[in-house]
Amino acid sequence: MLRNDKEDVRVGLLGFGIVGQGLVQGINLQINNICRRLGAPLKIQRALVQDPKKKRVVGLPEFTTNARDILEDPEIDIVVEVMGGEQPAYAYIKQALEQRKQVVTANKLLLALHGPELKALARRNGTGLLYEGSVLGGIPILRTIQRGLCGDRVEEVQGIFNGTTNFILTRMHDLGEDYSTALRLAQKAGYAEADPSMDVSGLDAACKLVILCRECFDLDIQLKDVTMAGIEQLDKVQIALEKGQGRIPKLIARAKPQKQEIRVGVEWLPDTDLLSRVSGVQNALSLRTLLAGELFWSGPGAGGLATGGAVLADIMEAAERVLVERDKGFLQAGR
Q1: CATH code assigned to 9-137+305-333
Q2: What sign has the CA pseudo-torsion 188, 26, 126, 131?
Q3: What does the H/E/C string look like for the chain?
């Protein structure tokens, strides 16, 4: 039965970790604005978790340990994947798209590995796949590239794409801490996972670079095309020596397709470089375009609220699509 166009738009969460809880916090803070902008209430129906009894910063009325309760529920309009990893997220997103649900994800590894395939599946099924939160946390860069720069041509991409490694490198450079101490503090602050390997190896930044390259250059860039190195081998003695020469370590992602250069690695920047001044968990992106020239953005790149805000922006767009389709359904039913 068709739901009234003023009824709520219902969301199912796949995962309820740092980003999922940050998303719900953002919705709670913005609920009145959200409802006013949509013209309909937005409701988190339930979330998929491993342990429903686990203590969390924020709660929900309903948790489930069975993904089918979300993927096969006809009342859920939008599926939001914030669990991370390749599997089972890949299978879940495919099923949601095949069910013609709107899908939002912040999963950069999944998109780097399967993005083109999933986008094609969404197009075939006449639904949406949105992923603003997968790239630079709180910086709304994908919409800027897709819409604001659609009349320009991006020629070069560079930036700091991982807040965890930037936090670690900032503490090592500014405070003289060793790698293990800075990493432990990042984990305690919630910026790094218990297993930080995806961040510190450079893989997280490489996944984001792949996604950005596809958006900026319209090229079929694969993860294997990225030359990648992380920060695990840096020590405070090396950093102190470079600091004495006025150089600052940053994990830089860089792409110059015309020179066949797509890489992630530590670079020693002079303090006159804008990227050298990006500290803590901040991310930054510099684009060189044909018409506008040099463009620069910076903002929070780690933490639940920052990424949750980007996911919420995608949910808002997906909800608007749901309401448009619902209106079409009522018009057709009324003929």
Answers
A1: 3.40.50.720
A2: negative
A3: CCCCCCCCEEEEEECCCHHHHHHHHHHHHHHHHHHHHHCCCEEEEEEECCCCCCCCCCCCCCEECCCHHHHCCCCCCEEEECCCCCCCHHHHHHHHHHCCCEEEECCHHHHHHHHHHHHHHHHHCCCCEECHHHCCCCCCHHHHHHHHCCCCCEEEEEEECCHHHHHHHHHHHHHCCCHHHHHHHHHHCCCCCCCCHHHHCCHHHHHHHHHHHHHHHCCCCCHHHCEECCCCCCCHHHHHHHHHCCEEEEEEEEEEHHHCEEEEEEEEEECCCHHHHCCCCEEEEEEEECCCEEEEEEEECCCHHHHHHHHHHHHHHHHHHHHHHHHHHHHHHCC
pLDDT of residue 5: 44
279 within 8 A of 166, measured Cβ to Cβ? yes
pLDDT value at residue 331: 57
Other beta carbons within 10 Å of 184:
15
| Topology (CATH) of 141-300 | Dihydrodipicolinate Reductase; domain 2 (3.30.360)
- How is the chain split into domains, by residue range? 9-137+305-333, 141-300
- CB of 84 within 8 A of CB of 16? no
Amino acid code (one letter) for 44: I
φ, ψ at 44 (rounded to 5°): -80, 110
β pairing state of 9-14 and 42-48 = parallel
pLDDT, tens digit, for every residue of 82-132? 999 999 999 999 999 999 999 999 999 999 999 999 999 999 999 999 999
- What are the C-alpha distances in Å from 183 to residues 162, 196, 295, 300? 13, 8, 31, 18
More confident residue, 190 or 216: 216
Structure token pair of residue 25: 């916090």
Residue 236 catalytic?
no
Helix axes 203-217, 108-124, angle to 10 degrees: 40
Considering 43, 53, 54, 208, which one is annotated as catalytic?
208
